Amino acid sequence: MKPIIFFSLFVLMSSCVNNSSAPVYPSTLKQPVIEDHFGTEVVDNYRWLEDDNSEETADWVVAQNDVTFDYLKKIPFRSQMKERLEKLWNYEKLGAPFKEGNHTYYYKNDGLQNQYVVYREDAEGNSEVFLDPNKFSEDGTVSLGGLSFTKDGRKAAYSISEGGSDWRKVIVLDVESKVIIEDTIVDVKFSGISWKNNEGFFYSSYDKPEGSELSEMTDQHKLFYHKLGTPQDQDELIFGGTEAQKHRYIGGEVTDDGRYLFISASKSTSGNVMFLKDLENPLSPLVAVDEDYSSDSYVLDSRDDLFYIVSNKNAPNQKVVTATAQKPQEAYWVDFIPETEHVLSPSSGGGYFFARYMIDATSKVYQFDSNGKNLGEIALPGIGTAGGWSGDRDDEVLYYSFTNYHTPGVIYAFAPKTQTSKKYWSPSIDFNADEYESNQVFYTSKDGTKVPMIITHKKGIAYNGKNPTILYGYGGFNISLTPSFSIQNAVWMEQGGVYAVPNLRGGGEYGKAWHIAGTQMQKQNVFDDFIAAAEYLIDNQITSSDYLAIQGGSNGGLLVGATMTQRPDLVKVALPAVGVLDMLRYHTFTAGAGWAYDYGTAEDSKEMFDYLLGYSPVHNVKPGTSYPATLVTTGDHDDRVVPAHSFKFAAELQDKQSGANPVMIRIETNAGHGAGTPVSKRIEQAADIYGFTLFNMGYKVLPELSNDKLKK
């Protein structure tokens, strides 16, 4: 496939066609690149925006941001929205404590700190700061990635992300003195840190690309072992690096006793093979535990030579099995917690196992003993999402959290021997959850499939078709959207807004079959589910097209892009964030080829190419169409879904938009895909997104902040 590039054709785009009231957008150069796919020629006018190292792309980013922020600052209630977000955000937030060595650790944010701080407490209850990521950089854009301790708790290794990049550095500390004891390990990506006793640790990475580290393909992951006291260039390659071991994602996990290493290797985001190595014998071979890429398996816990493995092998909703070091293969697995009709997410701690089931996207939890006996259901505080119950085998207290769309997260202490819970910590926040309600409905998608959706808003609002509503979705990669509290959404609902979340196909809410039903040649099911959710909200007078916004990030950004190009009449506002929007080229950037399990690629077959071309947002923007008011958001350091997706989509929309609705792109500088984004930036982003949304729905004031009703 050889591109034909016409460098001689320079077409400048300016404001929207025949629309003097629309914003005047920066001129964007067209340099057509024509590629032949199975006999079909495809024109890519904005390929040059993929070059994140070029001055031309940098200038385009500046010019677009100038126009966008000039527009946003004219929204009359933008500053009020930001002030309310800051006020509501400013409360103490706490993570569940965990014990390492002689200390108990916990994450805490005083309120508006850009990053959570890691504290520790000794046996006498004396507390001190262990790690403060807010001191990693002045602007808070260097964040803490992972933190891993040796079994005795005397050493720790932590990873940092700079500017939101997935590339990490690993730093090793002596825990007591907090002194750095090793040279920094660099160029680590998509990796955990798993210690081998106190001697060293396993980590994963790719070779650094020769071109842009933010966009060049990285498709051969490797597992290394770093021995303390040795330079990184002497780290031992454990797995990967050969054609026979070529995988896009590889991870290593050492059992608690330090005896065994489990290696997981994947070619895509679903399906893995697993190997076992006896670390006490340096010459021991890698033993294949599971060589079936069609299923997912991982080790949950171990007790000497007995392993507890979670797998969806012949169990789409997952099960827990046991296996021995002597016979770890799938043929010898014994069911420990069998598969049920509901999706299982297990954990272990205190010598027990906990089976968390997802029932219509909400949690129900059962406790099991070490023999696999079901000890009964754990009473939860309500209907929502619960998670936790993890710890060492000898822990007498475990912790779990509970939340839903209108209830801020609360932490509970759980005594596994007596199966009793008590509240450990609850937030002091200026938000009255009792004034809000969540209701789950089931609506019918285009092909007759029943899809659940949770709708949250103030109690007593009238369903009159005029409620400003955000419909949020994802629908991919076996990821489940379960109820959780968000400060941004709380502020939205304070303004009389409705927040609706459907559990679309492609997600994991109903197991593997639900996931598969939204992949590759069935991806349109996801968009149909989302469109049907919007139609349900409109048909039931919860909102109307003039008051409806659609929102999603990453794969959810694709969802928004596909929905707005297929049904531009359906909604008033579209909010695609860090989206996968060029479906013909996504697999050519960074680790994007690993997403082919969900999407397929344009190189697979003519049938797959035609299908992708049929919904790819970048390729389905049509001239003369009135698209919703659109605020595309991305980060210039996003090396997971490269910003070129968003750049090209925004350029296409600005060129072809025929209506008066604005099409803007907000590009956060020194920011990535989202993880580790400083609180200050998150508040600014939320104020701009929700300000843009309400403003384009016609609102001029904020009701709760002006002590007045919404006015048009």
Characterise this structure.
With 712 residues, the protein is α+β, with helices and mostly antiparallel strands. Among the domains are: 55-86 and 431-706, 3-Layer(aba) Sandwich (Rossmann fold), CATH 3.40.50; 94-254, Prolyl oligopeptidase, N-terminal domain (Methylamine Dehydrogenase, Chain H), CATH 2.130.10. A hairpin with a 2-residue loop joins strand 33 and strand 34 (407-415). Helix 2 (78-89) packs across helix 10 and helix 5 (524-539) crosses helix 6 (555-566).
Straight-line distance between termini: 53 Å
Mean pLDDT: 90
Shape: globular
Uncertain spans: 1-20, 705-712
Give the strand order, joined by hyphens, for the main sheet.
36-37-39-38-40-41-42-43
CATH topology grouping of the domain at 55-86 and 431-706: Rossmann fold
Number of helices: 11
Helix content: 10-25%
**Which radius of gyration do the C-alpha atoms yield?**
26 Å
Characteristics:
712 residues; alpha+beta; eight-stranded mixed β-sheet; 11 helices; Methylamine Dehydrogenase, Chain H; 17% helix; disordered C terminus; five-stranded antiparallel β-sheet; Rossmann fold
